[in-house]
Amino acid sequence: MAESTKTAKLTIDGKDYDLPVYAGTSGPDVIDIRKLYGQAGVFTYDPGFTSTASCDSTITYIDGDRGQLLHRGYPIDQLAEKSHYLEVCYLLLYGELPSPAQLEDFESRVTNHTMIHEQMMYLFRGYRRDAHPMAIMVGVVGAMSAFYHDSTDISDPWQREVASIRMVAKMPTIAAMAYKYSIGQPFVYPRNDLDYASNFLRMCFAVPAADYEVNPILSRAMDRIFTLHADHEQNASTSTVRLASSSGANPFACIAAGIACLWGPAHGGANQACLEMLQEIGTPDRIPEFIARAKDKDDPFRLMGFGHRVYKNFDPRAKVMKQSADEVLDLLGIEDNPTLQVAKELEKAALADPYFADKKLFPNVDFYSGIILEAMGFPTSMFTPIFALSRTVGWISQWKEMISDPQLKIGRPRQLYHGETLRDYVDIENR
Ligand code: CMC
């Protein structure tokens, strides 16, 4: 951590406390309150972590006011246009763009780990067929710690590296198998001659009776979706992974915790919820009704795919996603997609509405992604698993950064207690 550049003064009951302030390379300064409880006997209170920096990181930076997302300094729109997912994985994991030789070596290591232990197939078969693929993924990824026990010692850098490669490599296989299982089709094994995105598409859509010819434009669109979701600094699921791993838990268990957190509709589950909402709206004439509901304080309905804790401007990922949606539908010859039509009209109507403008609510990454995924042939239940497989590299990068930090401490927040104070137990016959 950088040296303290200035101090903040806090006065409690007339007594002053000087708190160190640190500056990062970008973003707001932070006030170091680590010694506050020891010195002043008070905690700080910030339940949704709206003003709390939980760690010191060098991986991803978001400027929410400018609508900017940088991975290791590189803007997401440049990465989405010029790079590809595995190169972005390398960048997130190791800090720099790879040389051609480094990239080749990394891609080959990932490609050689795409199969899963054959016995893991039995795990899938234990689930009900109608299980949500996210439910299957939480369980199967957690179970990786049983199948890959030789890479669970977090104190060994080599095992950490092997676990990282295994997760990046196997997550598409696991997500595709969760899908195949849910539709009653046989699993399709990975093929090492295909690139990462094409391999995933084939594992989802090929059947033994007919192979799936991967369209390079669809594969590029899939790769771009992976890239746009690769990391997003300290969001809820990443913080979950960090908190889980702060106890020393193994990486597979921690990533399973991240998947569980991602599933919620306020987070990664929003892509499924958003497409379902757009389909429910159905036609542009019903948009005002849904906008009115989103604004109504007595109605819990929210415009899914809108708003963000950090972005108070356009989510840069949404811009790329919108352009991709146009390209994919065009390629597939889908000219008048009613859902895309509703999405575009809804975006226009919301952006022109003072409620959304005043609260700085803009479309987020989930607003257009579902339209692309649906056009590719994915059911809505697969949207969040695709987010999970893309985000795995971000979770792992953040986990690796945290584990190698010599200042690592178990995450243990405190609380403002409002319950009963000390009282004596009452025997049951006297209650
Ligand atoms: N529709 C209508 N009103 C909204 C929306 C929305 N989508 N989002 C926020 N608001 C209102 C909210 O009611 C509140 O109003 P008020 O100040 O009058 O009480 C104000 O805007 C601030 O909202 P908040 O809930 O305090 O903000 P937050 O930072 O805690 O929540 C959010 C961020 C993403 C959870 C929220 O905007 C939301 O629920 N959006 C819909 C779900 C969604 O699209 N999630 C995906 C996020 S991006 C991908 C990811 O992270 O996984």
From TrEMBL:
Quote the cellular component terms of the Gene Ontology held in the record.
cytoplasm
Q: Per its UniProt entry, which superkingdom is the organism in?
A: Bacteria
Signal peptide limits = none
Sorted keywords for this record are: Transferase, Tricarboxylic acid cycle
| Reaction catalyzed | oxaloacetate + acetyl-CoA + H2O = citrate + CoA + H(+)
Q: Report the pathway entry.
A: Carbohydrate metabolism; tricarboxylic acid cycle; isocitrate from oxaloacetate: step 1/2
Extract the CDD domains matched here: EcCS_like
| Record-level GO BP terms | tricarboxylic acid cycle
Which residues are listed as membrane-spanning? none
GO MF assignments: citrate synthase activity
Entries under PROSITE patterns matching the protein = CITRATE_SYNTHASE
Q: Where is the active site?
A: 308, 366
Indicate yes or no for the key word Transferase. Answer: yes
The entry's family comment says: Belongs to the citrate synthase family.
The record's section on PANTHER family has: CITRATE SYNTHASE (PTHR42871)
> What is the name of the protein in this document?
Citrate synthase
List the source organism.
Answer: Roseovarius pacificus
